[in-house]
Amino acid sequence: MPEPGKKPASAFCKKPRSVEVAAGSPAVFEAETERAGAKVRWQREGSDIRASDKYGLTADGVRHTLTVRDVGPADQGSYAAIAGSSKVKFDLRVIEAEKAEPMPASGSTPAEASGAPEEAPAPATAPEGSVSSPEGPSSAAPNGPAPGCPGVPEDPIGLFVMRPQDGEVTVGGSIIFSARVAGASLLKPPVVKWFKGKWVDLSSKAGQHLQLRDSYDRASKVYLFELHLTDAQLAYAGGYRCEVSTKDKFDSCNFNLTVHEAVGPGDLDLRSAFRRTSLAGGGRRTSDGHEDAGLLDFSSLLKKSSSFRVPRDSKLEAPAEEDVWEILRQAPPSEYERIAFQHGVTDLRGMLKRLKGIKRDEKKSTAFQKKLEPAYQVGKGHKIRLTVELADPDAEVKWLKNGQEIQMSGSKYIFESVGTKRTLTISQCSLADDAAYQCVVGGEKCSTELFVKEPPVLITRPLEDQQVMVGQRVEFECEVSEEGAQVRWLKDGVELTREETFKYRFKKDGRRHHLIVNEATLEDAGHYALRTSGGQALAELIVQDKKLEVYQSIADLTVGAKEQAVFKCEVSDENVRGVWLKNGKELVPDSRIKVSHIGRVHKLTIDDVTPADEADYSFVPEGFACNLSAKLHFMEVKIDFVPRQEPPKIHLDCPGRTPDTIVVVAGNKLRLDVPISGDPAPTVIWQKIITQGNRAPAGPAPGAPEDASASDEWVFDKKLLCETEGRVRVETTKDRSIFTVEGAEKEDEGVYTVTVKNPIGEDQVNLTVKVIGYILERKKKKSFRWMRLNFELLRELSLQARRMIEGVVYEMRVYAVNAVGLSRPSPASQPFTPIGPPSEPTHLAVEDVSDTTVSLKWRPPERVGAGGLDGYSVEYCREGCSEWVAALQGLTERTSLLVKDLPTGARLLFRVRAHNVAGPGAPVTTEEPVTVQEILQRPRFQLPRHLRQTIQRKVGEPVNLLIPFQGKPRPQVTWTKEGQPLAGEEVSLRNSPTDTILFIRAARRTHSGTYQVTVRVENLEDKATLVLQIVDKPSPPQDIRVTEAWGLNVALEWKPPQDDGNTEIWGYTVQKADKKTMEWFTVLEHYRRTHCVVPELIIGNGYYFRVFCHNMVGPSDRAATTKEPVFIPRPGLTYEPPTYKALDFSEAPSFTQPLVNRSVIAGYNTVLCCSVRGSPKPKISWFKNGLDLGEDARFRTFSKQGVLTLEIRKPCPFDGGVYVCRATNVQGEARCECRLEVRVPQ
């Protein structure tokens, strides 16, 4: 689940833009990274760009530049810049030099929408966005600044500047989803629709707990659309979609809402249990295309537990004890969508399909007395019993799983038969048992679905912080509660996947999950997280630059003929390789020249030295900008050997032979390299002086000045140091002695004496080793790994710890390092949580200005942090001054403020800060000074569309007309009716600075008429006209009478009502009643004429008739009724059928629709049509220029219902001419003709 309030981090703070340059000119693309020294790769069409004569690559701190020189048509295409896991695409377009318009070739020039950079975390699927805080009212808007502010891209992808992101909220909380649409290029406001699932339009569900809002920022020309959900319930969870459309563009965005609830031990959360994850488990079933992955499965709502006792909103969700399928069975199809929305059912098609199957199964079963429930739920690892009752106790039963018969195998499936009951028991349920089951008896079967609830995957051992050097291997390890669980690795909120270079490697070992970074770079530093369905673990990776220290450099050598020359150096990293050079050229080893590398020591050995070996030798470590060099001198050996004697000497820079003090940090390596000389070679003795505690006058040290003996000294014992291996060791060569201490400790501090002796004499030097300072370490509270905070010895008593994660509990401890040594660590500090101040508020804007007041509004800061938000402070200062004055005492929790008592005409700057327990955050200041002076604004009505038409109200209903307007200063409002001032106690008027309201508590017919409202500011005014129509029921029709009665029919006639109710008459209702029963029956409804015939009356009965009148309000209260009954007499006449004269229907042919002249294009089929009548049916003949066309296969003729058609297949110019259609029968002949012109296309 995405971390609240965060969105995928981008390595770029300034992105390169698409540009259009003229051919032959250079193109420059610039990018700025968040961190100095970040490595940026440039690509073209997916291939890396290297520095060359064509391309120039420069990097200066955070600024990186790509220059394409001498641009040609071949350079046109798509480019990309990659830094870490962020990738930005941009285009280079090349135009002809004479058509080029002057424009800067800078990467900062805003590109058009077609060239907008697409930043995607590389490589791939990161959560888009951000989510809202699960507590209280929150916003799911991402943390990016608003458009128009610095740092916002002006070239969005599609219509969205900012898309709504996934959100989380707890039951009862509130959340806001925001979408921003660029309006600079739109002539009309865009149309935005919000959907839940696939079809449910949320605009029809707006109410107290669901609100849709929109606004427009004129400064940045951006539309803001918001979806507010308050008092969230579990049914709100699921997938949502936001669609935005304009006249010729369309864009949409999907996002999810997760609703959390603390479920007690005895509660049963069906919706969270049935929320399918992904494709975990081989037998896991998902829908086609996995469209419902992660959505609420409707089948989970078949059966609800009686223990589910969560209060619900009656408008958005049905009570928990109701059975959803019972509601669906009884509801009409038109209500399915509303019920699906109330209960969070998102798969409407699947719901209808299963409901159809359920309704089909409602017929009485002859084989089953009790069928399986529609669905069952069981926890993973538990067992479930599926039981049916049969009508025939001897019937054979088959159990099917996903259509395959279940066979008895071990203890997994147990079949039981007790009387008429048949039971299938499934033990140790796993995800593979999540399937559809059927019980088949003869030709009948009953079905159910089994849902296996997978427990949340918990983290049993969290990640540990890591601190490595550049190039080292990093491995994060985390242990979860389930084997084979699905986990996600994220870096700084961006999901990690296997890149093309396979930089990240993921490994699973049972319940342990590993993330391996083969060779760490500086870009890999950051916060890594492992997320499961039940939580997440977070750790920090610190990558330091690799520095190579030279412990021993190579020295000049002087050797004689046939002797051996050895160059030796020691560096800090034993994995570093290098190259030996001779006079600048690489030295190739052979049988005489040998190169060795053992640990940190690199050696070059030259056997049997010759005069040709005299040269400059260098050692160059690979990957480091350093060079160790020395010179080999060849010495000719004289035949006469004269032995030379030289007293021993220690070559140290110690004036006066006073002790030299060497400071080393505890835990670091101490290396003392003492050059010596003497002939014959002296013997070197290292000793450490140990205090005995007795004070006595000490004699002068050998070689020390005489006055040194005047002071009192402690009496010491000396410990001989002669080991050549181990932590403390001594190495002696002909010209130097090396004393090494690996990992200095407290006991290593003291005075060391170096003595060199030979037969000629001796020399001695004292060296003092001290360890001073402080070392700080920190760790997470639940971790056992301490991390060092300072790598250089700290001499102050305070340190500002950085790079800590806000909201994570830490502990600290300190090591004291002084002249005695490294102390024990101090007790761990009390656990604390780093809390930082919030970021600056956003979208600070001036809402209104008057002569003494300024109204401000802003939005909450993007980052609040673990310290929460206590409130806001507002300050102002005059333009050009630096003294800020508080606009209110204390803090305000609202995001708007009216600043009063300001000097009229002053130009003021305003700023707002957010405060929490860590103190005030950074301020946000108005971009321009605000002049405290009310601006004259022309009065103008903003008449809603429904008020521009005739306003109809029924008698007795209230009338409430709100008309918004604008204008400054406050306009004067005047109402008139039919040109007369509006007056009367029944009509109320209320005016405010922004609108006016006309209110009538109970409307009457006299209130109908034309109303006019006028707003005036000084000599400027605007008017609006409203037509109010108060309607009522009509009066009854007038003068109803029986005009005629014959057979079983009666003819009635009446007049329209005297009063039509001030609206159109919709029709009449005619009813009849038998005189004996006087029960009224409707004969005609919505009848619009004022006379009718009532048929099918009964002979011998008397009837009364009545008529009601209808309009838009309803039927009239009374009806017009006949005064006397009408009797239907019994007939006494015999029926004589009439005689008819046979008619002659024969008719000569005649054309009712003649042929018309046509002009067609050659090659396209053409038809000529006409229509003819005649009796008997005439014979049809077609002629072209007098020739009969009946035998020509290129012409087809059709005749249907008198319509005659001649089809000419692919005519050519030869087919042009006069066409004649002739119709002939016994009564005569008729013909018609037309001219056809066939044109050849040019």
From TrEMBL:
Residue ranges occupied by any Fibronectin type-III domain in the UniProt entry: 837-935, 1036-1131
SUPFAM superfamilies xrefs: Fibronectin type III (SSF49265), Immunoglobulin (SSF48726)
An example Gene Ontology CC term for this record: myosin filament
One GO BP: cell adhesion
Domain Ig-like: 363-441, 455-528, 648-768, 939-1027, 1149-1237
Alphabetical UniProt keywords: Actin-binding, Cell adhesion, Immunoglobulin domain, Muscle protein, Phosphoprotein, Repeat, Thick filament
Start and end residues of each stretch annotated as Disordered: 100-159
Free-text function comment from the UniProt entry: Thick filament-associated protein located in the crossbridge region of vertebrate striated muscle a bands. In vitro it binds MHC, F-actin and native thin filaments, and modifies the activity of actin-activated myosin ATPase. It may modulate muscle contraction or may play a more structural role.
Protein name: Myosin-binding protein C, cardiac-type
Gene: MYBPC3
